[in-house]
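Quick check before the chapter quiz. The format below is the same one you will see on the exam, so make sure you can read both the input and the output lines.
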Amino acid sequence: MVESRLTGQVRVVGVGLLGTSIGLGLRARGVDVILADASPTNLSIAIDYGAGRGSLADDAPRIIVVCVPPDVTAQIIAAELLAYPDALVTDVASVKLAPLEELRASGADISRYIGSHPLAGRERGGPLSGRADLFLGRPWVVADHGGVSYQRAALLDDLILDLGATLVEMSPEQHDSSVALVSHVPQVISSVMARRLSDAPEAAVNLAGQGLRDVTRIAASDPELWVQILGANSGPVVDVLREFRADLDRFIEALEHPSQGSSRRRINEELAGGNTGVARIPGKHGLDRRYSSLVVMVDDKPGELARLFVEIGEANVNLEDLRLEHSPGAQIGLAEISVLPEVVQRLTDELSQRGWRIAG
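Here is the expected output.
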């Protein structure tokens, strides 16, 4: 067991995906985790899952992590501040300014509150989706409002580092405008695109490839939760969506007259701008690095994918990223493997010699 930076008790309020994952990660380091949830069923599942224990009358947590829906986040934070006057309280809501302003308006003791937000998650929620490694290598924003002492805030830093996340400091305003661009607007665009498939002909849907799957993956998220998130951060989201609408209008105008030289140039500029934007997205280990890829055909039967991974390792090549896609109507899968450019040819040759079929 790896030694924890934290000492004392940690109380986690709300045992959905994030709360349960926090509990599992801290328990793996031997931290005493106290769990609480409005749902006795969810609480029982999380406890049985090993994310922590139930609360006792003499509990005295040093830090409390509130993991509840955005529309009740400030209310629960205020209640925890009152119930545990010696504890630092944080939350993991994906909007930071609205809870802080609500707490200020209510007169809560924000000298013991500091908002935070782990940029980690899955399409499915609930305690059974929790994972101890959910936060490994992921950014975790600490939204300092200037009213918390360094000594108190250090508890949150220790918790974040114990969970393997990367600490990022931002103001609440910076955080909300940033997540509007990189999280909230992508959710809207993904959902709107996926909604176009609702009445699409079956023949069209059957042609869906990895591109459509990539664009619509997060459209499977919980609508009720996203109504709250978008409502709480509506200003920054609307600003980005208006700019996106202007981009679409320019693209549509160019496509209406595709044979014109100026239209072709504008289309090319928009597409090239997308290349530039993608290149800025941090890759593995936070580096702006582009990888080379090859597509391997994998028979759809037990053990084949595991064998592929083993043989990539035997070739002494590190797998940087992986995408899987099934070929429609065929008992075969397509594994798109991303590796460093300098090893792609060697890996292609090695896998071909071992009998793997390289599709591209």
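If your answer matched, good. The chain is about 45% helix and 15% strand.
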